[in-house]
């Protein structure tokens, strides 16, 4: 069932093979360097790439651009309170702006910050505040074949071990990322959230939830955690977030907007501190880097994100893509996460040696053979780590249709057919900062 229809459309085309070959070569075999027009189906990210509803577009026109105390801020504040249960909120231009505001306030030199898995901008902001970001995923989180309902969970023993090793006083907060984006979009259970909250209380520190995909996470909880089988996604989201002392949010995910983010906190003193930093880096506390109209669209988007029909179809489309790929024999990370399907490049292009970026080789091939833009999240994006060679196909919200999904599956199946002839790659130019190399480095086939 599909509970929405298209009222405005955007044209897209599959450029002919020859054009794609020229474009990818000119892009240095890095899909970040491609013009979006050269792409047929863009699965680079689900961040800010979704489709707004007519209600959201209508809300844009209500935008009140008053510098201070706009009615758009009030609409946004009401939505955050009603959907997420937080009274104190400061907008930010996007998720990383919110991270800078909260983490710059909470963390200092020498701190150790546990997170089920740090998203890349999160890691950077924790480090920027002088603290040491430590990932505490559950054991099977990065295993593409391990079964598990909540492979996104936080390993509490890992946090306890950090407290023993460094002293509880060096841990300023526990951070829980829902869903766990860097671990294949796997969900976190409410049970795990309660345990994390209890541990945070024991350590006398706040529990921070990175809530980017809180609605998708709630959908998984409904499916997989018996206690919530009859609850609505909206009720589950409220329950899960009720254990958080603060949230950071990128509205470009489950806010269903093209830009925006925020920090919400419970403690009035922390709120005062956060506001001071927000003014410095984002803007006055009632707009924080967002236009009034964007706050309006976000207020509507947040409410839509927790509608059962919407989120069932959203996560269902991702699952359908995963099922179809699996049926076509394409190796994927299982179970499928909320926002993306991850291809297992090691298995898919086994002839490409580990030193020649098998994930990137697969990304290039998906573009060459079908005009599909994916992103590598293996040894090219994360040099020097032992992460599996995964390629992410992230689905923009409410954007692509079944025909597009079919095309992606056909493309992946075609790549699988020709896997023997897929070349490896070597880097020919890269930026000084290795951590950011996958955004701009240029490669060539070996
Ligand atoms: C996207 C994301 C962020 C950062 O948000 P931006 O809006 O891209 O700055 C932080 N944490 C997680 C888990 C994310 O997925």
TrEMBL record:
Annotated keywords: Lyase, Pyridoxal phosphate
Start and end residues of each Aromatic amino acid beta-eliminating lyase/threonine aldolase domain: 42-410
Needed co-factor(s): pyridoxal 5'-phosphate
Matching SUPFAM superfamilies: PLP-dependent transferases
Domain of life from the UniProt record: Archaea
Class of this enzyme: lyase
Any GO molecular function: tryptophanase activity
Record flagged with keyword S-adenosyl-L-methionine: no
The EC number(s) this enzyme carries: 4.1.99.1
Cross-referenced InterPro entries: ArAA_b-elim_lyase/Thr_aldolase, Beta-eliminating_lyase, PyrdxlP-dep_Trfase, PyrdxlP-dep_Trfase_major, PyrdxlP-dep_Trfase_small
NCBIfam families: PRK13238.1
Family of this protein: Belongs to the beta-eliminating lyase family.
Protein name as catalogued: Tryptophanase
